[in-house]
Design brief:
alpha/beta, eight-stranded mixed beta sheet
């Protein structure tokens, strides 16, 4: 079974420019999960995987795209494996935390639910984490809103799950209350522009229309954000938790 590979062609850029999850998220997951082994599902280049190693003695991080794993940050407690979420190859009842961050909307949902139910131990925590549009005020925020209109036709259909807060991705186990957590980054303009070019919609836009629309967006943002000053970017996180 093939998968929709939106990021292998930009794996190095993804590793450089994707934001990193806050310690508050790691602590919220670890405080609600039994101690032991964490499975980071659809780990990409390991933004969450390495952070989880601060609270779990072993992290197994899987992604179906080897190019993403090749660009991932290394850590002695993190084991990267090329595997699909729906066919992990993990033993039965071997995982204490199963978390998919900015990934669950790509999964074959019924097959994933069966797989995570198989590998999670009784009382394990199942977690879905996602982030959508960033919050940035002023002229730069207005330019980004304009660009979102430009790329809107190029979002894969799975993007609807991000936009609706994963409400249609049903976990068939008792829900666990999740805290409200924001992810933030203090970035330069070029870091923000690098991140925007990791969007799956931007990748598709460039493939269909070339780089001209992206160059125009970069120029407009540069006019609204001159120099090398840093600004704080905020993403409200969607967090859904369940107890196996």
């Amino acid at each position: 079974m093939t998968f929709a590979d939106h990021f292998s062609t930009i794996a190095a850029r993804y590793a450089t420019y994707r934001p990193h999850y806050p310690r508050a998220l790691i602590d919220a997951l670890a405080d609600r999960a039994p101690p032991g082994v964490a499975w980071d599902i659809g780990c990409g280049s390991g933004q969450l995987s390495v952070a989880l190693a601060a609270r779990f003695f072993r992290v197994i991080a899987t992604d179906p795209a080897q190019a993403q794993l090749d660009a991932a940050a290394l850590h002695p407690c993190v084991e990267y494996r090329c595997a699909r979420a729906e066919a992990s190859g993990l033993p039965d009842a071997s995982i204490d935390l199963a978390v998919a961050a900015q990934a669950a909307h790509w999964f074959d949902w019924p097959r994933f639910v069966a797989e995570v139910g198989r590998v999670a131990r009784p009382c394990a925590l199942i977690a879905l984490v996602s982030y959508g549009n960033l919050d940035l005020d002023g002229a730069v925020g207005a330019e980004l809103a304009r660009y979102r209109d430009v790329v809107a036709p190029y979002w894969p259909p799975e993007r609807v799950h991000v936009d609706n807060g994963y409400r249609d991705l049903v976990l068939p186990w008792p829900a666990v209350e999740a805290p409200a957590i924001d992810m933030t980054a203090t970035w330069t303009r070029d870091e923000l522009l690098g991140y925007i070019q990791t969007w799956s919609a931007t990748v598709k836009l460039v493939a269909r229309e070339g780089r001209a629309p992206v160059i125009e967006m970069c120029e407009r943002v540069a006019a609204a954000w001159p120099g090398d000053e840093t600004r704080t970017i905020r993403w409200p996180l969607t967090i859904r938790l369940a107890r196996r």
